[in-house]
Write a structure and sequence with these properties.
The radius of gyration is 21 Å and the shape is globular. It is built from 8 helices and 12 strands. α7 packs antiparallel against α8. The protein is of the alpha/beta class and 273 residues long. Strands 1, 2, 3, 4, 5, 6, 9, 10 and 11 form a 9-stranded mixed beta sheet that branches. A 3-stranded mixed beta sheet has the order 7-8-12.
């Protein structure tokens, strides 16, 4: 399978080492297409050392939502492959995601799993003025409302229907685009459990301060969707699996004296979840 129909997009701010490692991993692969890089640093980075076709767009501190939209505006291929700067490129993983897209015409956004610091896909629903983010039990290509966004393959035509909220530089931007797709389009979104990408974050003090700066994205989201709270829940299958594993550990790996106390812990776990 060739990469003729896909363009890579990424952005970076205050994480030069991460970006250079990502670019090196792409350079060492068979990918020979275009890379659209939105450079959010105050001074533009120099990437001349890489033998890659990089379209370098300098937009200081534009935010991650704006960066996504800029990349989408410059795409001329059928697919956009977004990869955060702290990931390692996996060409075989990308090929698998492209196969999923080709086999499922209504699939507009599919993400892989990560080897660390990974949040599984979520189902989103609003109940009693509360947004419930329900964890899904991954099994092959698993449909959900909000896949991970650190690595994601997008059908470019999806951007004709929705775009990222550019005023949200961080925070709730991921939930916002997922809710837009869920509520106003017929596109499907999914996580591909059989594909794993390496996640290698390097977070400097300046980068942490940037990510943690005060923003009103959650307040905007709550007002936009008329919710008071946002909660995370496990789906029933995941709850059952977790309870079984905890129960096995309690019943078979502890002494008789401790079982009564541990059964109390199990009951408390079940009530909480």
């Amino acid at each position: 399978m060739s990469f003729d129909d896909v363009t890579i997009g990424t952005t970076s701010i205050l994480r030069k080492k991460c970006l250079e490692r990502l670019m090196k991993s792409i350079e060492q692969s068979d990918y020979d297409g275009r890379i659209i890089f939105v450079d959010q640093n105050k001074e533009p980075l120099n990437l001349d050392e890489f033998d890659l076709e990089i379209e370098h767009i300098h937009e200081p501190d534009c935010g991650f939502g704006t960066a996504h939209n800029i990349v989408a505006d410059h795409i001329e291929t059928e697919y956009m492959f977004w990869v955060d700067d702290d990931m390692i490129f996996n060409e075989n993983g990308l090929k698998r995601l492209l196969m999923d897209m080709e086999n499922h015409p209504k699939l507009g956004w599919v993400s892989p799993t990560f080897d660390r610091d990974f949040t599984p896909g979520r189902r989103l629903r609003i109940e009693n003025n509360t947004l419930l983010k329900e964890k899904v039990d991954l099994d092959g290509l698993t449909y959900c409302d909000m896949p991970a966004n650190g690595v994601s393959l997008w059908r470019t035509s999806l951007y004709e229907d929705v775009q990222w909220e550019e005023h949200l530089k961080t925070g709730a931007m991921h939930m916002a685009i997922a809710m837009k797709i869920k509520n106003s389009t017929d596109w499907k979104t999914a996580v591909e459990e059989r594909v794993v990408f390496k996640h290698r974050p390097i977070e400097t003090k300046d980068y942490k301060n940037l990510r943690n700066r005060k923003n009103s994205s959650m307040e905007w989201f709550k007002e936009e969707y008329n919710v008071d709270k946002i909660k995370t829940r496990k789906d029933l299958n995941t709850k059952i699996k977790d309870a079984i594993e905890l129960g096995k550990d309690i019943l078979f790996n502890t002494g008789r004296r401790n079982r009564k106390e541990n059964i109390r812990i199990l009951k408390k776990f079940l009530q909480k979840n």
